[in-house]
Amino acid sequence: VLVTRQIPERFIEDLKTVADVEMYHEKLKAMPREELLNESQDADVVITMMSDQIDQEYLDHCPKLKAVINLAVGYDNIDVDYARDKGIIVCNTPDVLTETTAELGFTLMLVTARRIIEAAHLVESREWKGWEPYLMAGKDVYRKSVGIYGMGSIGTAFARRCKGFDMDIMYHTRSRHEEAEKELVAKYVSFDELLKTDYVVCTAPLTKETENIFNKEAFQKMNDDTIFINIGRGGHVVEEDLLEAVQNGEILAAGLDVLRQEPIKEGHPFLKEKNIVVLPHIGSATVETRDAMIQLCVDNAKHIVNGEEPKTPVK
Ligand code: 8YV
Fold first, then answer.
1. Nearest C-alpha neighbor of 252 from the set 100, 99, 140
2. Burial environment of residue 163 by CB neighbours within 10 A (0 to 12, 13 to 18, 19 or more)
3. Fewer CB within 10 Å: C terminus or N terminus of the chain?
4. What is the pLDDT of residues 60-69, one digit of tens each?
5. Distance 80 CA to ligand 1 centre (A)
6. Residue among 24, 71, 291 whose CB has most ligand 1 atoms within 8 A, to mutate
7. Is 94 touching ligand 1 by the criterion CB < 6 Å?
8. Does residue 49's CB lie within 6 angstroms of at least one atom of ligand 1?
9. Is residue 78 within 6 Å of ligand 1 at its C-beta?
10. Which fold would CATH assign to domain 2-94+286-305?
11. Would you list the domain boundaries of the chain?
12. Does residue 281 carry a catalytic annotation?
């Protein structure tokens, strides 16, 4: 089993009860492509991260490979169809990160609406001169409308939090979600209607159909006080169009946990825009959840090595 990022030793020990294990030891770096290709040659199972491109070249390069186990619920870094054609199993880590990721998304919505980052900077930079009636005045969240794009488990967990804030919940997704409609009084709307809400929140997985869906046209349809939140993938958003929309006042602000290119490049225009809050892809980043995600990867790997069905294969 090859593990492409450094994970705590106790998980490696667990894996070693069934297999020989190799782990990439650089703490802050993804495995360079060449090394990933070379090290994977003899692997039966590889535990990958979002930063590893598991494409056709990679899959053709690893003759023994039985399974790719991604430490994430998303798997847009993996050519799942090609893996399937080759009889290689792909696993992900659903469910264990749902609440944590929804919690981060909801936090990001509050932080962006209430200008928390800007306000904290004001204090840190010693620029806070005193009380003013509209000092750092943001936008209410309570009782506003929210349009959730993607009503899978994370979208539904996000909607539950919105209910606690008495929000008017709308959603758009591939198929209707009757439970959310009944329990959360969420209303299924068209994509255009969704864009008219106070908070447009993307929680969807990245696919060919959803790539670039938040583009110039979409931002122009939003209201000038809409706040856009993205906890899906950077690929959903045309970043230049978002920047233009915020700078031209076509929308109020954006909170992004994901970007097209991570980490953000020096000089990226979002870094200078106070109405765009960027987080370093920390949706599932709590100790409890990362432990659970890694354990699920380890369990999947052990099942596969033992010739058993994996726990969470991508269907
Ligand atoms: C991961 C995520 O931490 O699960 C996902 O799809 O985006 C995060 O939870 C990230 O992808 C690292 O692999």
1. 140
2. middle
3. C
4. 999 999 999 9
5. 17
6. 71
7. no
8. yes
9. no
10. Rossmann fold (3.40.50)
11. 2-94+286-305, 98-278
12. yes
**Which of 76, 11, 95 has its CA nearest to residue 47?**
11
Architecture (CATH level 2) of domain 98-278: 3-Layer(aba) Sandwich (3.40)
SS3 291: helix
From 7, 50, 153, give the residue whose CB has the most ligand 1 atoms within 8 Å, as the site to mutate. Answer: 50
In this structure, what token pair is assigned to residue 166?
């008495």
Task: Answer whether 2-94+286-305 and 98-278 agree in fold.
Answer: yes
Q: What are the tens digits of pLDDT across the range 70-98?
A: 999 999 999 999 999 999 999 999 999 99
- As a whole number of Å, the end-to-end CA separation of the chain is 22
- CB of 232 within 6 A of ligand 1: the answer is no
Dump pLDDT digits (tens) for 209-242: 999 999 999 999 999 999 999 999 999 999 999 9
**d(Cα 190, Cα 194) in Å, to the nearest integer?**
6
ipTM value? 0.96
Query: Measured from the CB, is residue 50 less than 6 Å from ligand 1?
Result: yes
Bridging pattern class, strands 276-278 and 187-188: unpaired
Surface-to-core class of residue 299, CB atoms within 10 Å of its CB (0-12 exposed, 13-18 middle, 19+ buried): middle
97 lines ligand 1 (CB under 6 A): yes
- Other Cβ atoms less than 10 A from the Cβ of 247: the count is 12
233 part of the active site: yes
- Give the C-alpha separation, 244 to 238, whole Å: 10
Distance from residue 128's CA to the centre of ligand 1 (Å): 37
